[in-house]
Design goal:
The structure is a single chain. The chain is an alpha+beta fold and about 250 residues long. The chain contains five helices and nine strands. Strands 1, 2, 3, 4, 5, 6, 7, 8 and 9 form a nine-stranded mixed beta sheet that branches. The longest helix is centred in the C-terminal third of the chain and has 32 residues.
Amino acid sequence: RYRHLMNDLMLLLPHHKKDVKLDTKDEREVINEIADMKGCTSCIFFECRKHLDLYLWLSKTPNGPSFKFHVANVHTMAELKLTGNHLKGSRPVLSFDASFDEQPHLQLLKEVLTQIFATPKGHQKSKPFFDHVLTFTHADGRVWFRNYQVHPPSDKKRKNLDEMSLTECGPRFCLNPVKVFAGSFRGATLYENPLYVTPNAMRSEDRRRKQEQYGAKKQKKARRASHEEGNKVEPEELAGVWGEDED
């Protein structure tokens, strides 16, 4: 699924330059050299751990800043099968809600997202018009991503903009911010999310809760067995008088 998400994002970014998998997980500074050889000033790095957790890095190479996110609620285009279908290579309209202007780290994130997802004008692989909208919404301390196709008005002159509608195309995903670094994949920590809980801690808490439920269930069974042992039902005095045992 995460590989399909990466392919979906590449379809939305006609100006992208893809590179092979990174061999090491510790020396992320090598990505700055790769971006420099490719002639790129922005980088999106997908980091998958334990084949379960996906972390997304957004970085301005080589001097920063860089954002680290935990990706959740991933739904790819092939999985959703939505009716929206904008032209491949067209330039997007970026939409941000008002909360991106309230906090400093969100203002910085808005600028980084704009520089990464906005297709440069006149790029050789892009189409010279807009027919879809990329929306970034900040809610519950997370960034929610959606992609919509723009349907112009039905009249020929297309003056009645009130009839314009949107149809979702996909993909969908949610970015939970972890940290913001001053440099590119390194440097001082500019912001750290105090509400972030690691997936390992969540899984550990889930296992602990299941163990407590199982332990309570076993104790309940033991108490029931002890109660039945101490309160055995004595046989009735008239048992077997009517020949029930012979049957």
